[in-house]
Amino acid sequence: MTVTAPTEMERRLRVFAAAAARGPLTEADHDAWNASYGRSEAWDLRIEHREAPGPHGPVPLRVYTPIAPADGPRPVLVFCHGGGFMHGDLEMPEGDHTARGVAGRADAVVVSVDYRLCDAPGDGEPARRIPGTAEDLDVRAPIPCDDVIAAVDWTRASAEELGIDPDRLALGGASAGGNLAAAASLRLAEAGRAPAASLLMYLVAHPLNPEATEEEAAALAELPLQLRFTPEGMRGMSENYLGGPLERATPHDFPGLGTPEQLAILPRTYIEADEFDDLRTSARRYAEQLAEAGVEVEFEVRRGVTHGHLNKVGLPQAAESRDRMAALMQEL
């Protein structure tokens, strides 16, 4: 039996879990867990801020284009950061570093979407407001997904200006952004405008996580409560996104609720899960559902990492994920 050495993130996870088991976590514990793993990547790109017209107001975008001349129209990835539908922005590594890394590796254009966010439940802080959003707009489903579709429509309509091939457009996202990318892909496919591919990183496919396999449960047992997506936490996040009870949810909100007949129209899909992540069960089950529906799907578990590994600056496994995403873009 081959025993592999723990990754640096696994080592930090054990230290963090041990600290959590001893008592309240200190600022030093959090700093050690969140510390950079190395230097960020450098790519020669032109970065522009644009806006897409949308049904709820303008949608801010950040466009990443390789500086080097292209032989012809480039492929394009429209990408959505995560943050539980309530947090996140274009600056977070999951958005910015992912966009830079995929654009540079694949010689592709990446359009990063600053979709509207939901306010936190209860007495939580109000979400960051996008300029041009009506003050009385209660951001719930499907508003964030509407913004993503507006970004896709703008990208296709701007193909000549952006130097991209609109038929080689992939739609991707991470965590809650993966949910929005999957839901937008379904809605676009229903309208006869499916993307060429979907790239879904540790996505929220279901309002509640499906049951874990024995192997998944063993990995999840290593997580301290602070890193868990508990059933109560998932219900709170999902109901907050919906603005109501889970019984109201449809496949346009959580694509994992779709039937095989509904999901069969989806394009080629890549799904990646993190080994130490409760959302791993949702990603795995959604991949199974797509396969059962006859969709071309690839599922991979990124070993040795926790949820949101694309936010970890300098993490080798994050670079591996960007490598895979870029390779998929080059295949379009």
TrEMBL record:
This is Esterase. Residues 77-117, 140-309 form the Alpha/beta hydrolase fold-3 domain. The keyword Hydrolase applies. It comes from the Bacteria. GO terms for molecular function: hydrolase activity. Coiled coil: none annotated. Keywords: Hydrolase.
